Amino acid sequence: MRLRTTLTVTAGASALALLTGCGAADMTKQASPFANARGSKTVTLSVQSWVGAQSNVAVAQYLLEHKLGYRVDTVQVDEVPAWDALSQGRVDAILEDWGHPDQEKRYVEDKKTIARGGGLGVTGHIGWFVPTYLAKQHPDITDWKNLNKYASLFRTAESGGKGQLMDGSPSYVTNDKALVNNLKLDYQVVFAGSEAAQITQMKQFAKAKKPFLTYWYAPQWLFKKVPMTEVKLPPYKDGCDADTTKVACAYPHTPLQKYLNAGFAKSGGEAAAFLKKFRWTTEDQNEVSLMIADQKLSPQDAAKKWVDSHPDVWKRWLS
């Protein structure tokens, strides 16, 4: 699981272009008034702050608007509040969920106000990574048992004499502080502030060929620009992360899921059917993400470019 930062509500085609990855107050209560609007061709999608999730929404929005004739609004809220908004019909769909078993039990199984929308087709994984150029210099650095030996390599002004483990936003839910403590590692978790700030730091370290150890995740377009190698943590086993204070294992590999408001899933017509069928690959998502984050195309332009070149993929979603 990872909790992402919150931005203000946006609407229509300009929504995704405003996303920066910086945190703000929870705007759940300002969700679009068009969500779950009966008798009108409108759809409201929850969009998370990381670029992969923005890519999903950009392509879905483009196709809903240009091929199915819908008005699409987008709302950005943290992951857990997004479940509340979805349950209440203030958004119609979440297209990328990294696993929230408590919310799934509450809303899908017990209250039945949220319906499963099927897999996104992408498997997510969080882990600790070092740049591949560092792993080539010190091959044993990719085993957590050897991290203390190399702690001095990762010291920064912010890490208080310990090695720095770089995280993104303080609002992300991670196991990193518990892992550092429970594995008795001589490291300090230091937050970059946002995904965008974290990417900037990693790029700066990589340009200078400096060592860094970072919390990161796949799929993510940055791997194409900054090759990284995962540090092997103690193997993940079911339940090993149940007590967040005692976690001493790796993060799981998580098939990413879609969820729809239950009412919308039943009465959302072509839009609901389309979103249930929306399923693409990690490569597809990364292609759009790279255009948005690295090539600086607007989400709309990136979506159009991908749609124009992949009709064999998206036409299946409309059938």
What would a concise description of this structure say?
With 319 residues, the protein is α/β, with parallel strands linked by helices. The protein contains twelve helices and ten strands.
Q: Let me know the number of strands.
A: 10
User: What is the distance, rounded to the nearest whole angstrom, between the alpha carbons of the first and last residues?
Assistant: 33 Å
Helix-strand pattern: EEHEHEHEHEHEHEHEEHHHHH
Q: Note poorly predicted spans.
A: 1-31
For the CA atoms, what is the radius of gyration?
20 Å
Structural class: alpha/beta
Number of helical runs?
Answer: 12
Helix content: 25-40%
The rough form would be described as globular
Largest sheet features? 10 strands, mixed
Task: Describe the 3D structure.
The chain has helices at about 50-65, 80-85, 100-110, 130-135, 175-180, 195-205, 220-225, 260-265, 270-275, 280-295, 300-310, 310-319; strands spanning about 10, 40-45, 70-75, 95, 115-130, 165, 185-190, 215-220, 230, 255-260. Helix 1 (about 50-65) packs across helix 10 and helix 10 packs across helix 11. By secondary structure, the chain is an alpha/beta fold. Strands 1, 2, 3, 4, 5, 6, 7, 8, 9 and 10 form a 10-stranded mixed sheet that branches. Helix 1 (about 50-65) links the parallel strand 2 (about 40-45) and strand 3. It is globular. The two termini are about 35 Å apart.
